[in-house]
Amino acid sequence: MRPSNKLNALLALFASFATAPSAAMTTVHTEKSLYRNILVYEEDGQRCMSFTRRNQTARQTCRSLADPDQFVFTYTRMMMGALYLNPHPREILIVGLGGGVLPTALVKMFPDTRIDVVEIDPAVVKVARQFFGFNPDRRVEVFEEDGRVFVKRAGKSGRRYDLIMLDAFDHEYIPEHLLTQEFLSEAKTLLTADGVLAANTFSTSRLYHHESTTYQAVFGSFYNLRVALKNRIILIKIDGLPPLDTIKANAAALEEKLKPLGFGGDWLLPLFSTERDWSPDARILTDQYSPSNLLNAAD
Amino acid sequence: MLQPLLVFLIAGWSGFLVMSIELLSGRILAPYFGNSIYVWGGVIAVFMLALSVGYLVGGRWSLREPSLRRLAALLIVGASATAPVIFVADPLLDWLFDRIQDPRYGSLASATLLFFAPTVLAGAVSPYAVRLLVNRSEQSGHRAGLLYFVSTFGSAAGTILTSFYLVLHFEIDHILAGLIGISLLIGLLALSLGYFGHAPKQ
Q: Quick check: ipTM above 0.95?
């Protein structure tokens, strides 16, 4: 082999690394927190946060390194469907920070909006700031505490939000006190008269049916957004679910704002459904009965 | 022969009871003070403290006329002291929630008010039971070992059954009521046998 061939082979080898980086997952940061092991890694041109080592289904957050504004996960995109129910929320509460993708995008979209974020794990807040560009200004306030405690206290002090986003669950463990009829009722009292609630929930286990009947018991009907074998997003408006025509009109008005996130109405609108595809007699989850993790482990 | 069996039954069941209630206490506190690591820290600390006081008290009580009847009464009173959890937990926790901002001290105060007294009585069962089982000093280690085995085995069973199965089928209050009911049954059974049976030798 002539030297130039050798060089070419070497270059080809490098090139193959460059174009197929999936073979190379680089660990950026690991951290043991009070609640879990946090892993930050880069792969396929994305930086991801995971709570379970090398488990792709347990990714909490991913950002595209080339285009950090873009929403990588379908579930965060579906959460933004809440804006189709209220296109301009001014006071927002987000329970569960992850990498801070939702609050980061929302303050960019709405300069006059205030956001409260509740995250139980201080280490997650630190990692979001350090590795996921979560640099909130004065319009975003982060509370490091249990979501249930925050919601109960906020309700007693009379605080109100136009939009509440519940995103406190991962695939491994569910805080069971955040999935009960009583908790949802407390969250409901935090909503303004035309407030909207968006919840990221489970769709692949027995828990799906119990969650559905619980949300239905508290809020009545809701839009149910599902992508096969992935998350299910529940969208609620407490003064009544707007008809699809209103949803479509709001979607059209938001098209420009959502563009930088990498999706729009043509992707999101077809997912809006009011079909009740769960068994209606699934037992409602309450503070007295909430074996969510056991139900999630069952098919 | 029946008396030692009943003593072991009471000790084992009391171990079951304590751990089952401890697990449920985390659930009962969560809607008010959350599920953070320090809430569990508060709960466990209160239970341990109550048990330690219970050992002290139970040992003391065993000095004066120990009998199966009194051991049975200990179980009955201890289980009954759990009943308020069913009826006053929510208003009490709500009251504490309004007064204590920090969930660490909130959970500590709640666990103390709701669970300290019944857990002291449950803790008193073990040393008292040892006294009823020991006649000669050379058997004391052996009997105490057996007693610890039964009581801690009961604790393990209470932990597993409650967290794996009971919460999947029953409401918290129903589990508590069931635990109290079984305690009363065992207590009354031992009480009646204590009356008709022989008093232990001093």
A: no
